[in-house]
Amino acid sequence: MARRIIDAGDEVTLWARRPESLVPYAESGAKIVGRPAEVGGASDIVCLCVVADQDVLDVATGSDGVLSGMSEGGIIVVHSTVHPDTCRRLAEEAREVGVTVVDAPVSGGGRAAEAGTLLVMVGGSDDDVARCRPVFEHYGDPVVHLGELGSGQTTKLLNNLLFTANLATAVDTLGLGETLGLDTTRLAEVISHGTANSFALGRVASAGGTLDRIAMHAGELLRKDVGLLEGIADPHRQHEGDAVLAAAHAALERMGVRS
C-alpha cells in the first residue's frame, strides 16, 4: 500500500515498529523517521496499518504517537481491522486537537495491494472520505463508503465472519465427498466452477482439503475478528446470525483456535 502511494508521486513519510519493514523503502524516495509523532508532524493524512485495537491506540495516542505531532485539519485513517468503538474512541481524542478519523479496513492481501485492487471499506464523514479517496484509490478498487465512522469496521468483521463460516462448510463438503468415494481435488475443481464456489473453498482446496495451513497463518486473526463481531452483535440480535456464528466457531474449533 505504501509503495503504491509512493509510486503515484505523493510525498510519503514512513515509520514502522519493526525496522526490517522499512528496508524495502530505503531507496524509494519516501522519508523514513524514527517516531510516530514525526509521521504525524509531516502528514495531513496518516494511514495506520497495525494488528489489534490496543496497537491502534498505542501508535495513535501514546505519548509519542502520531496524534501528538499532527496539525489541526489532519485525518487519521485506521486500515487495521478493529472494533468500531476503538475508532470512535480515537476520534474523541483526536477531536480535541482538531483531527478527524476515518476507518478503512481492507481485504485482498498483498497481491491485491500491489495490483491496486484492494477492497477498501470506508466509514467516516463525507468530507473526510472525499479527502482520503485519492489516496485510497492508489491501492484500492473498489473503494466503498459505507456510512458513518465505524461502518467500515463492522462491514469488514461481517466479511471475516462469513469467510470463517465458509471455511467450515467447505472443509465439511470436501470431507463428505471423500466419504462418498470422490477425489477431493477434482471435487473442489468442479465446485469452484459452479454456483457453490467461494474464496474459502479455494483456500481449503489449496491446503489439501484441511484447515491446517489457514490455522497457521490466520487462525488467531480470524478468532479475534469473530469475537469482535459477536461483541457488536449480541446487544442487537435475537436469532439473526446464529447459523453463520455456529459455522464460524466450528471452523475455529477445527483449526484448534480457542474462540
TrEMBL record:
Record-listed E.C. numbers:
1.1.1.31
Could you list this entry's UniProt keywords, alphabetically sorted.
NAD, Oxidoreductase
State the active site.
156
* Classification via Pfam families: NAD_binding_11, NAD_binding_2
User: Which terms in the Gene Ontology molecular function aspect does this entry carry?
Assistant: 3-hydroxyisobutyrate dehydrogenase activity; NAD binding; NADP binding
This protein's superkingdom? Answer: Bacteria
Domain (6-phosphogluconate dehydrogenase NADP-binding): residue spans on this chain: 1-147
Please report the stretch or stretches of sequence annotated as the 3-hydroxyisobutyrate dehydrogenase-like NAD-binding domain.
Answer: 150-230
Q: What class of enzyme is it?
A: oxidoreductase
Q: Into which family does the record put it? A: Belongs to the HIBADH-related family.
Q: What is this protein called in UniProt?
A: 3-hydroxyisobutyrate dehydrogenase
Organism lineage = Bacteria, Bacillati, Actinomycetota, Actinomycetes, Mycobacteriales
